[in-house]
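hey can u run this one w/ uridine-5'-diphosphate-xylopyranose bound, need the structure tokens asap thx
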Amino acid sequence: MKDLSSSGAWRVAVIGAGYVGLTTAACLAHLGNEVRCSDADQERVDKLANGIVPIVEDGLTELVKWGLHSGELAFSSSNTWAVEGAEFIFLCVPTPQGPSGRADMSYIETVSKEIGPYLSSEAVVINKSTVPVGSTHVVERMLGREDVKVVSNPEFLREGSAVHDFLHPDRIVIGADDEATAIRVSALFMHLGAPVLVTDPATAETIKYASNAFLATKVSFVNAVAALCEAVGADVHQVVLGMGYDPRIGSSFLKPGPGWGGSCFPKDVAALVRIAEDAGYDFSLLKGVIAVNEEQYARVVEKVQRLAGGELQGRTVALWGLTFKARTDDTRDSPALEVAKRLQDNGAKVVAYDPTVNRPMEGLEIAKDPYAACQGASVLVVATEWDEFRWLDFDKVGELMENRAVVDARNLLDRAALRRAGFSYEGIGLI
Ligand code: UDX
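ok here u go:
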């Protein structure tokens, strides 16, 4: 193994080229390490090897191209090639939600079993994927190597700002059974100037789940407060503003919406409930957070039904936004899709537009532009906070619609201007 460490650089392998793995690989190469990244999807590998990044992440394409050009970054479909001579091996493979709600560890186990015999002695395997508490020991067993350490280093990357979040972390968490290994791993992040929390693996894994669960709790809390505001005639924006001046509360992650979604919150929150249950604790608070989120989808559908005159059967509903939030192209577990499904289950026809979606989607009619989606619609629903929706010509939208009604599930649009233009307007938590 080439000793790069004197130059503050190491040979690193990253297994999995999804938004976490690819971001990790590109950023570690950017920090001067020699990085090999592997993925099972040969088509994705071929694209990446040519500098084509198949996901929307600010700055990622530039970093990948830079890494390829400088020779610090390379891609393959071979995991064993990737780990050859590597001192650090990041596992960034999916841990999807299994049928029971528990995280599915099969990808992690398969990869660990495969690479075990090919690892250099004294290498460190680093769990980046969000894995259940106690998973480092699962990986150790699968690797079958006494001379290889396994640590937990959870990711805190938000989709859409993954590169920024990797290079400007609030904290680095490293869970290891021995401090010396944790210190070795922390050297990878020394240029980032963030506090490094060294702890045991179970604590590190719990930090990750608890952080995501708390963020989801904040969102469910503000969605519940929004429902209260509607019932008592209060303005949720002002309520959040008034709350947020208290530094113990803050105002981040208190934007009402259609509910939380994405590839992390739903999976991680469900997994934490199961982890607690398996350990003998009934996490009833978190079950309530999930219940409020389910209710939020129903509340949006109720608003649409109300503005459609009480009946959705045979109506056309325009849906702006399909991704689970703005600035990403990810529609996994998107609230927009959940709302669309429930509208269709009530007999409505849904015509959707999203700036990042130009492919057919199961059961949905996809419009070529936001105006086309509104043709003959009884109600327009704004489900994702794409900024471009704010600047459209709403007189033109009104002319296209059968009925001037909008359910703004992100409180994105100008309520007063829409009402002046003759629209019935319903937001979330607004009068
Ligand atoms: C999240 C965590 O933020 C990140 O730290 C972790 O590593 C991965 O999971 P992400 O899934 O990309 O990141 O989405 P995030 O930006 O957290 O939003 C999650 C959901 O909550 C989205 O559906 C979003 O629209 C919703 N949300 C977020 C709100 O409805 N209101 C808010 O104020 C914030």
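The chain has 16 helices and 14 strands. anyway lmk if its weird
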